[in-house]
Write a sequence for this structure.
C-alpha cells in the first residue's frame, strides 16, 4: 500500500488597508522575503490562484479599493471563502493609518486620491476608510503605519513574516466588547465577564486594563488566577500543534462587557507571558 503524502497548506497573506497606508511597500517586502506577490487582481479571480497544483511558495495578495471589482461585501466574501479552504492558511494583514497622516502623505506627493480624483484628498480618504472599516475589524495582523517611515515599515513586516519559510507562528492577542460582537477571524475566544468588574468602582471607571489599579482589582478576584493559568497552559499546549500544521498566525481574543477593563487586562497579561516565553506577539484593543 502506498502512503499518501500530505501536502502542507499554502500560506496566503491578504494585504489590505486604505490607500496611502503602505500596502505597496508591504507587498514589495513580502516579495523580497520569498512570497509570490500579486497586486490589484480583480477579486473574482483571486480564488482561482489556489486551484490546481499547490504553489511552491507562500502567496501575498494585494487588495484595496482600487481593485477593479472592489466592494466591501465582495472582499468580506473573499476572506470567508479563502479562510474556509482546507488547503490554505489565510492571514489578513491590514495596514492602518491616521487620517491626518494619510492627508499629509497625499499632499506631499501631490497625488490624487483614487476615490476622489476630481475632489479633495480629504473626501477620498473618508470614503476609503468607511469602505475598509469592516475589513479592519477582522484583520489578523493590524499594523498602524502612522509613525513609520519606509524603513521602519519594512522592519515591521519582516518581523512578522521573515520566518514564514520556517513556519514560525505569530500570535496576536486582542480585547473586545461583547456589545459589538465577537471579532471575525479569531481562533480562540475567552469570555471574562464572570470576573469582578472594575466599572462599578467609580475610582476605576475611567481607567482601563493597562492601569495598575485596574489590574490589582481584577487579580483580587479569587477566580482570576486559576482562570488565567488554565488559559495560559492551554495556549502553550496548542502553539506547537498549530506550528506543526503550518499555521502562520494564531489570534486569541478576550471579551468583556465594555472591552475596557477585564478583557484589556487579560489580553495584556497573556501577551506578556507569551512574549516572555519567546513567542512573537502583538496586542490589539478593539475598543481602546
Amino acid at each position: 500500500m502506498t502512503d499518501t503524502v500530505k501536502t502542507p497548506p499554502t500560506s496566503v497573506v491578504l494585504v489590505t488597508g486604505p490607500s496611502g497606508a503602505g500596502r505597496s511597500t508591504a507587498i514589495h517586502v513580502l516579495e523580497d522575503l520569498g512570497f509570490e506577490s500579486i497586486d490589484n487582481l480583480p477579486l473574482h479571480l483571486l480564488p482561482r490562484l489556489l486551484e490546481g497544483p499547490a504553489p511552491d511558495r507562500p502567496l501575498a495578495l494585494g487588495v484595496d479599493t482600487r481593485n477593479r471589482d472592489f466592494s466591501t461585501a465582495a472582499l468580506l466574501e473573499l476572506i470567508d471563502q479563502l479562510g474556509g479552504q482546507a488547503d490554505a492558511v489565510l492571514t489578513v494583514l491590514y495596514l492602518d493609518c491616521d487620517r491626518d497622516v494619510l492627508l499629509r502623505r497625499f499632499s506631499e506627493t501631490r497625488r490624487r486620491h483614487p476615490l476622489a480624483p476630481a475632489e479633495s484628498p480629504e473626501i477620498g480618504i473618508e470614503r476609503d476608510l468607511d469602505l475598509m472599516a469592516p475589513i479592519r475589524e477582522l484583520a489578523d495582523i493590524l499594523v498602524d503605519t502612522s509613525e513609520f517611515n519606509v524603513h521602519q515599515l519594512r522592519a515591521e513586516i519582516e518581523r512578522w513574516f521573515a520566518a514564514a519559510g520556517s513556519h514560525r507562528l505569530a500570535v496576536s492577542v486582542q480585547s473586545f466588547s461583547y456589545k459589538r460582537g465577537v471579532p471575525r477571524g479569531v481562533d480562540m475566544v475567552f469570555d471574562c465577564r464572570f470576573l469582578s468588574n472594575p466599572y462599578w468602582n467609580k475610582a476605576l471607571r475611567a481607567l482601563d486594563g493597562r492601569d495598575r489599579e485596574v489590574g490589582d482589582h481584577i487579580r483580587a478576584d479569587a477566580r482570576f488566577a486559576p482562570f488565567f493559568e488554565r488559559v495560559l497552559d492551554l495556549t502553550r499546549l496548542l502553539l506547537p500543534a498549530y506550528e506543526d500544521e503550518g499555521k502562520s498566525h494564531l489570534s486569541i481574543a478576550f471579551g468583556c462587557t465594555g472591552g475596557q477593563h477585564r478583557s484589556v487586562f487579560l489580553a495584556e497579561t497573556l501577551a506578556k507571558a507569551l512574549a516572555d516565553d519567546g513567542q512573537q506577539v502583538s496586542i490589539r484593543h478593539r475598543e481602546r
User: Anything to note?
Assistant: The chain has two domains: 10-166, 170-285. Confidence is low (pLDDT under 50) at residues 1-5. Residues 224-244 form the longest helix (21 residues). The CA atoms of residues 68 and 194 lie 47 Å apart.
